[in-house]
Amino acid sequence: MKIGCVREIKTHEYRVGLTPAGVEELVADGHQVFIESGAGEGSGLGDELYSDAGAQLISGPDGVWGEADLMLKVKEPQSVEWQRMRPGQTLFTYFHLAADEALTRGVLATGSHCIAYETLVVNGRLPLLEPMSEVAGRLAIQAGARCLEKPVGGLGTLLGGVPGVRPAKVLILGGGTVGTNSARMAAGLGADVVIADVNHARMAYLDEILPANCTTLWSSRRAIREELVGADLVVGAVLIPGAAAPKLVRAEDLKVMKPGSVIVDVAIDQGGCFETAKPTTHDDPTYVVDGVVHYCVANMPGAVPRTSTLALTSATLPWVRKLASEGTKAAIQGSPALAHAANALGGTLTCEPVGRDLGIDWTPVEEAAGQLA
Questions:
Q1: Is 100 among the residues known to form the active site?
Q2: What is the mean pLDDT of residues 65-69?
Q3: Is residue 338 located within the same domain as residue 278?
Q4: 11 - beta bridge partners?
Q5: Are residues 365 and 264 located together in one domain of the fold?
Q6: Over the chain, what is the mean pLDDT?
Q7: What is the pLDDT of residues 3-35, one digit of tens each?
Q8: Which of 341, 287, 289, 347 minimizes the C-alpha distance to 318?
Q9: With a threshold of 0.85, does the pTM exceed it?
Q10: Which of 109, 124, 128, 275 is buried most deeply by CB count within 10 Å?
């Protein structure tokens, strides 16, 4: 199969969807690999590493899109890239369709096959989302700590405090991979951490593994509002696979928060779990609403591309090899995990949560796959 990988063009996105090690594996499997020149530079992976591994380097994205039957990316295709997608071509990347109707309708119109990292499920886990959730969870605390500093508009509070001065209070909404990594990071810095969730079994597990300065809390509208009053930093870490994130903090709730307190919405890729959240970029990461600093960068792991690329591609490569060796139709029909990851096939939406959230007709993936050539 012809496999392609292009340079990411989203603002300050430095990750890449395939490493030279991955190229070497795919070439050994008998596939042709096409890489856009400079695609790996942001992650410290130069062109010579790709060519030495057996990739064919192409200047500019058009040639790669034109050659590849299977395209590998990191972030959702940008509007200029929709024009390069073609019927029957498979794109394997993060999509987060439920948060963006224009993107959803745009990729459906291309007639391509959209296989989403974030909805691939194995034994109830999301193995292609977890590596970036681990990175984002830890970065959320680094970003939040920075935003609490006075020169950038924060309270002027040190997250861990010092002897004789109380540490900051951190409220984390969601006890999944993002929330757990945020809690560990914040606790390690000495903050007073509360992590809210609705799953009793998960909270029992978190009570066992997290340090003593972390407290679990049954998440309810009242409980969250009460915790917001004293919170210095609030991290949104709620995920419903494939669906838009629930709005756990309403606009009026910000009025009970301290001026200069900080919100970091890691769920912004799925629409955010704060009503006042809107996507920002690494160029301009924050804005203020009712005195509360909002950090809502939609590609947080892109700030540490070396770590993120290596973590992501080690998880995606086995699935890339399966898609490449079997073809999209056979791979989906033979793998429940890839079937769950199929968000659109040949211009047909196949992800129920996306259809429900956006009001777009959808078709079960088994039916849509059966209609492919």
A1: no
A2: 98
A3: no
A4: none
A5: no
A6: 96
A7: 999 999 998 999 999 999 999 999 999 999 999
A8: 341
A9: yes
A10: 128
Catalytic-residue membership of 282: no
∠ CA 292-215-173, nearest 5°, is 40
Average pLDDT over residues 298-304: 93
Catalytic residue among 69, 197, 253, 269: 269
Domain identity same for 220 and 138: yes
Which 8-state DSSP code applies to residue 128? T
Same domain, 212 and 341: no
Question: Which among 371, 323, 305 is positioned nearest to 120, based on CA atoms?
Answer: 323
CATH number assigned to the domain comprising residue 200: 3.40.50.720
282 and 143 share one domain: yes
Residue 175 DSSP SS3: coil
Indicate the burial class of 322 (C-beta count within 10 angstroms; 0-12, 13-18, 19 or more). middle
**Residue 242 pLDDT exceeds 90:** no
| E strands present in 121-222 | 169-173, 192-197, 214-218
Domain containing 232: what range? 130-303
The active-site residue out of 31, 69, 96, 197 is 96
**Judgement on whether residues 330 and 229 belong to the same structural domain of the protein:** no
Name the token pair of 360. Answer: 């777009």
Number of domains making up the chain: 2
Mean pLDDT of 172-193: 97
> Which of 303, 334, 350 is the endpoint of a domain?
303
Domain boundary among 303, 325, 355: 303
Q: Are residues 238 and 311 located together in one domain of the fold?
A: no
- Looking at the predicted structure, is the pLDDT value of residue 210 above 90? yes
Residues 258 and 232 sit within 8 Å (Cβ to Cβ): yes
Q: Are residues 134 and 115 in the same domain?
A: no
Residue (of 361, 370, 358) closest to 101 by Cα position? 358
